[in-house]
Design a protein that fits this description.
The chain is α+β, with helices and mostly antiparallel strands. The protein folds into 2 domains: about 100 residues, Serine-tRNA synthetase, tRNA binding domain (Helix Hairpins, Orthogonal Bundle), CATH 1.10.287.40; about 300 residues, Bira Bifunctional Protein, Domain 2 (BirA Bifunctional Protein, domain 2), CATH 3.30.930.10. The chain is built from 13 helices and 16 strands. An 8-stranded mixed sheet has the order 1-11-12-13-16-10-9-4. The chain is elongated. The relative contact order is 0.14. It binds one RNA strand of 92 nucleotides through helix 3 and helix 4.
Length: about 425
RNA sequence: GGAGAGGUGGCUGAGUGGUCGAAAGCGGCAGAUUGCUAAUCUGUUGUACGGUUUACACCGUACCGAGGGUUCGAAUCCCUCCCUCUCCGCCA
């Protein structure tokens, strides 16, 4: 959520920076609503002040022993009733204007950072660096990972479809063990890098989804539980960031670094026909997520180090990848700046996103009320929130199943993973 | 799921219609003091929005789980919901 005060005081600046994302954002309606809201609010406040005054006066007189039926008290009561009538007209108006204002406010994305490259779409994302060319697979006739997985008997798609739907998978034997090994390996590495592991609820309420800005705009992207205000979490970003919702933290407790393994659930609405095979786009997948809550002055460095921590997993697994900075047109809704890590996927001859590392600045913190207090200073400040995958497990498995294929038709297990899986080939 | 109890400031905990943003204690902060490593004393102590001010600051409004209602006036009374605890049942 953007700051209303900033929109009001420097609308041109906000407008210009929103326009870098796309032309669809118009601040005029919200400025007008805000003007109305302030007018209604000050009228209401004046009435309420007088009403409080009347209440106090009557209280004083009654305690001094006045007759409740005395003309003096009766006329005060009468004035109180008039105010109540006036308020009952003003209040619904103000509430309506406020609600409209809030829904506008919630519909605006974060302002891109000054350093974010300007562009319209994915095409204009900027490659920052590339790593691991020497590990690109050298054999030809590679199988796509889903074929390799079925050949090895470790991935079952048809049976998962029977149990649930398309876009689900059942992992078998070494496949399930590999998934588990990847989770443990990533958590161990991120914990060693200083992230405190948490295991949050997999179901989250609407307030949490609003806090991290999946709601209200992306409701159709998540699975909703009928009969409860609960959704299947689409990413650990939601439960982990919201652990601190509506809290005022001590500055000394920052930065907070968490890692979390969670299952993630996404409806993938509108992606029909895309990535229909394999592990790339499933309704349910596992992920190890990194979440940071930090002092605003440090969020840039924290962002860079977050990316390095995610990259470290790919490097440890010796998987070729590149780092791409998203341009303003491709930037996620809440992000001010975002780097994607893309792993090499030989079957489709491209780099595919395996981690997305975003700095949300104060955007989520304002929605979720995550603040901190500095000793000796008055008031509170909004923290900055960041997160990134470290990494998506299924896509990592896909990358291994493809990049580690050997000419004899087996798949080698990355050395870093061998202690976890206790085997060297599949 | 059934029966009961309860949700008050950073914490403990008073407050059942009137000057209550809320007693008291603890903690925190500031000051004073004492040679004994901490104690004592004094003062202070939330958040948000809006307004006035160069500023220190001041003023108004809201906030006692959430949302409605009654009333001139609600932490206090009524309704709905959420959550917590205890006992029983069920369950990994």
């Amino acid at each position: 959520m953007l700051e209303l005060k900033q929109i009001r005081e420097s609308p041109e600046l906000v407008q210009t920076r929103l326009q870098r994302r796309s032309a669809e954002y118009d601040l005029k309606p919200i400025l007008e609503l805000n003007r109305q809201q302030q007018e209604l609010e000050s009228a209401r406040t004046r009435l309420q002040a007088r009403s409080n005054e009347i209440g106090k006066l009557i209280g004083q007189k009654m305690q001094a022993g006045s007759d409740p039926k005395s003309p003096e008290i009766q006329s005060l009561k009468e004035e109180g009733n008039q105010i109540k009538t006036q308020l009952s007209e003003l209040e619904p108006q103000e509430k309506e204007v406020k609600n409209k204002q809030l829904s506008f406010l919630l519909s605006f994305p974060n302002l891109p950072s000054e350093s974010t490259p300007i562009g319209k779409s994915e095409q204009e994302n900027v490659e920052i660096r590339r790593w691991g060319d020497e590990y690109l697979p050298k054999i030809s006739n590679l199988l796509p990972h889903w074929e390799m997985g079925e050949k090895l008997g470790i991935l079952q798609f048809n049976r998962a479809v029977k149990v649930a739907q398309s876009r689900f998978v059942n992992l078998v034997g070494a496949g399930a063990a590999l998934e588990r090994a990847l989770i443990s390996f990533m958590l161990d590495q991120q914990t060693a890098a200083g992230y405190l592991e948490v295991m949050p609820p997999a179901l989250v309420n609407s307030q949490s989804l609003t806090g991290t800005s999946q709601l209200p705009k992306f409701a159709e992207e998540s699975f909703k539980c009928e009969g409860d205000d609960l959704w299947l979490s689409p990413t650990a970003e939601v439960p982990v960031t919201n652990l601190y919702r509506e809290e005022i933290l001590d500055a000394a407790s920052l930065p907070i670094h968490h890692c979390a393994y969670t299952p993630c659930f996404r409806r993938e609405a509108g992606s029909y026909g895309k990535d229909t095979r394999g592990l790339i786009r499933l309704h349910q997948f596992n992920k190890v997520e990194l979440v940071k809550i930090v002092h605003p002055e440090t969020s840039q460095q924290e962002h860079e180090s977050l990316v390095r921590d995610a990259e470290a997993i790919l490097q440890a697994l010796k998987l070729p990848y590149r780092v791409v900075e998203l341009c303003t047109g491709d930037l996620g809704f809440g992000a001010a700046k975002c780097y994607d890590l893309e792993v090499w996927l030989p079957s489709s001859n491209t780099y595919r996103e395996i981690s997305s590392c975003s700095n949300f600045t104060d955007f989520q913190a304002r929605r979720a009320g995550i603040r901190f207090r500095e000793p000796g200073k008055k008031g509170t400040r909004l923290a900055h929130t960041l997160n990134g995958s470290g990494l998506a497990i299924g896509r990592t498995m896909a990358a291994i199943l493809e990049n580690y294929q050997q000419s004899d038709g087996t798949v080698k297990i990355p050395e870093a993973l061998q202690p976890y899986l206790r085997r060297e080939v599949l």
